Description:
219 residues, alpha/beta, seven-stranded mixed sheet, three-stranded mixed sheet
Amino acid sequence: MGETGNDRPPEGSDTPGGATDQLDKRQWRARLTAGRSAITAQQQVVEARALADTAAGLVTERAGLTVCCYVPFGPEPGSIALLDVLRSGGARVLLPVIPDTPGPLDWAEYTGTSSLVAGPYRGVLEPSGPRLGPAGVAEAGLVLVPALGVDRRGVRLGRGGGYYDRSLVLASPGTELMAAVRDDELVERLPADPHDVRMTAALTPGYGVVRLAGDGATA
């Protein structure tokens, strides 16, 4: 899968505001979270529509694809409409169910908005259907992963809970791991830990799908 956006992200682009080479993960999280707090409702809607349009192309290329996705929380990129676009394109959509204790995510199928209920973690919406267990992610050919940022090597920065790092190692070999981020959240370099699972691509509103150097392996 190549880049599908109209513009190629500029090489060497980074989050505005000065040098970032010396920032640790905590500082990066603060920086990117502050950037998201400035996103207007109108911008969020426009970007969510762009992500859904690109996602539609991803599933039409691969009939019968199983996609692990997520329900956006707060200012996270995306929308429930993206889930419906995936389903209408013929994909089977799985959503995470956050466990009571730290560990890999559980999964259940998304069958429409009526199947969503508020979960125990900050009221994040979760599917109410039968649980597939942590191994459910192995059924997916594409995993759309929420992220605060991702770099060109495929290093993803999440919220710090570790749920996805524990889950993505269970994905099948060759699965596309795609971080959903805003254009300026695709940066040149983020700090990496040995347990970090590399992304193979980024899904962005302005640039479409951007291939990354990651191969799904740990750093």
